[in-house]
Amino acid sequence: MAAKKKIGRKIEGWKAKSWYKVYSPENVGKVYLGETVSDDPAKLIGRVMTAPLSELVNDYAKQNVKMKFSITEVAGDAAYTSFIGHEVARDYIRSLVKRRTSRIESIVNFVTKDGKKVRATVTCFTLTRADQSQQHLIRKVISEDVVKYGTENELGVFVNAIINGEISKDTFRKVKELYPIRRIEIIKTKVDLPKIQK
Question: Model's pTM, two decimal places?
Answer without folding.
Answer: 0.87
